[in-house]
Write a structure and sequence with these properties.
Layout: H1 6-42, H2 47-61, H3 65-75, H4 85-111, H5 114-122, H6 127-157, H7 169-180, H8 183-218
Length: 219
C-alpha cells in the first residue's frame, strides 16, 4: 500500500487549486463582459431589450447552478456534440455570473440620484453622454464593493463543476480521499485553501465599501 505524506496531499490539492483559480478568473471576467453588454439593454430605452434581459436574468438566477452545468455538459451531447468539461464549466459559470452582475450593476445605476439625470439633460447631453460622463462614473463607485464581494460566490461556485468531471479543488479532494483514506486531513486542507482564496476577497469588499462610503460622504 502506497503511503501518502501530508505534504503529498497538500501538494496535490494546491495543484488542483490552480484550476479553481483559473476557472474563477475566466468565469468572472467573462461574466463581467457579458453582464456589461446586457446591462445597457437592461437599462436602455428599447422595451424588447429590457424584457429579453429580464427573462435571461430570471432564468439563470431562478434555476440551480448545478442544473445549468448539467445542461451545458450533457445537453449538447444529446445532439452528438462532445463538450469538454472545462468548456461547459466555463460557459455555465460565465452566464450564471453575468446574470447576477447585471442586477448588481443595475441597482448601482439606479442608485444614482435622479437629479443627476435631470442636471445632465439640462446641459443638452444625450443618453450615451449622460451614461458615460455622469451616471457610470458615480455608479462605478457604488458597484465596486458588491462586485468584489460577488467574486467570492464565483470561487465557491466552481466546486459544483466537479459533478461534470472538471478536476478542480473539491474534485481533487474526493480523488485524494479515495486514494489516501484520510478524509479529515484532505477536506481540512480543502477548506483552508478555499478560505485562503475567499477571505481576502471578502475583506477587500468590506474595506472598499467603508472607504468609498467615507469618500462619498466627504464629497
Amino acid at each position: 500500500m502506497i503511503q501518502f505524506t501530508t505534504w503529498d496531499i497538500l501538494r496535490g490539492l494546491l495543484l488542483a487549486a490552480r484550476w479553481t483559480l483559473l476557472l474563477s478568473l475566466v468565469s468572472f471576467a467573462g461574466g463581467a463582459i457579458v453582464g456589461a453588454i446586457l446591462l445597457f439593454l437592461r437599462i436602455g430605452k428599447a422595451r424588447a431589450g429590457r424584457i429579453a434581459v429580464k427573462y435571461f436574468v430570471e432564468l439563470f438566477q431562478g434555476t440551480p447552478l448545478l442544473m445549468q452545468l448539467f445542461l451545458a455538459f450533457f445537453g449538447l451531447g444529446l445532439f452528438g456534440i462532445d463538450v469538454p468539461a472545462w468548456l461547459a464549466a466555463g460557459a455555465a459559470l460565465t452566464l450564471w455570473s453575468s446574470a447576477f452582475l447585471i442586477e448588481i450593476w443595475r441597482g448601482c445605476v439606479e442608485a444614482v440620484a435622479k437629479g443627476q439625470w435631470e442636471a445632465s439633460a439640462s446641459l443638452g447631453m444625450g443618453y450615451l453622454q449622460q451614461m458615460r460622463y455622469v451616471i457610470l462614473p458615480q455608479a462605478l463607485r457604488i458597484a465596486v464593493p458588491p462586485t468584489v464581494g460577488f467574486s467570492v460566490q464565483v470561487v465557491k461556485g466552481t466546486a459544483l463543476t466537479s459533478i461534470i468531471g472538471f478536476v478542480e479543488l473539491s474534485k481533487a479532494g474526493t480523488v485524494i480521499t479515495n486514494a489516501t483514506f484520510q478524509p479529515f486531513t484532505v477536506y481540512g486542507f480543502v477548506a483552508l485553501i478555499y478560505f485562503a482564496l475567499c477571505w481576502p476577497l471578502s475583506k477587500s469588499s468590506q474595506i472598499l465599501e467603508r472607504k468609498l462610503n467615507v469618500a462619498h460622504r466627504n464629497h
